[in-house]
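Reading a protein record of the kind used here takes only a little practice. Think of the row as the fold of the chain written in a discrete alphabet. With that in mind, consider the following protein and its fold in token form:
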Amino acid sequence: MSFYKTIAAAIALGAAALTSVGSAGAADLPAKAIAKKAPAEVPFFLVVDNRVSYSYIFNAVQPGAWSVKPNGGFDPNTAKQVYSFTHFDVWGYGTNFFTISLFKSDHNDPAGPCTQTGGIVSPNAGFAFTPASCAGATEIYGLFRSTFGWNQIFNTKAFTMGPLQNISFEVGMDANTENRYFGAAKRDVVAGLQFAFNLPYKGYFNVAPLMYWEFANHNSFSQCGAGWSNPCIADGNTSFKPTWAVETNYYMDLGFLPENMQFFSISGRAGWYGKKGTDTEPLPASVANGVYPTKIEFNSEPIRLTFDASKAMWGEKHSHMIDVWVAYRYWQNKFGLDHNNAVGCSVAGAGGTRVSTGACTESSLYSGVTVKF
């Protein structure tokens, strides 16, 4: 169901409560009783939904992390276990969405101080490779998005026409921290509009053109004194240029199935993020120094098939208390890095060319279980 359909339904329920004693019924009540009858209040939060998930990404990748196969090819794949908490609510003027996840990689994506799979390369040791037992890296990633509906703000239905359900202001922020050698610590903000459309079978499709600004991150390889980069950044803290973004998401029940099979739904998302300077902004682009322009990033989960296990076992009353799902995940130019040329995505080839390791393009099966509480 569209978020705004949910708002409308909740408001309708509140209005029904307020008018349950209508003018016709009021004529039969004593004036004293009418005076004492307090009107029902519409709750501040019309919907509150909290969930926890465990999921598994079978073939994730991480820029800068790969191993060499016996035949000389590259293996950038790393399985990741994901532990997530998600909150969603609808209130009188819009929606709020928040999620925080912990990603735990296998050994092909090492934690610091390892600089690559299975070892440490130190500039102080002449860049000699020193074998080491490398634990898998851990990343914590948080995201929130909030919308403010124009129909609700301006008390109108002017922004509902045909399949268009509403237009909203949208704001949000992303943040992460990693225990990899380069110590990434991404911080970004987004702001713009969201257009919400209805789909059949209680479905919705949202599209949001946004301003995206990754105002802070960190890269220890470009830090002065580290011995990796010249020119360098004094503290390794990067700050990228504002750019554009487009985020979309959809949901639809498979309501065309026979009634005894209506336990399935599909959903998905996609995000495009524009070029934001160089990959170690504010350092200027320099092939000799290993600094490349960023590329358009495409981060998507084009389809997720969800099985409402609790509804199948215990009936409609327990719908979506336990969901089991499987999805396909595709992410190109991960974090804006050029998947063909950036140092974290490729190695030097013959004649000054670069050879991609596949570490910046993720194509994977993704599956998990979600519990509502």
Notes: The longest helix spans residues 3-18.
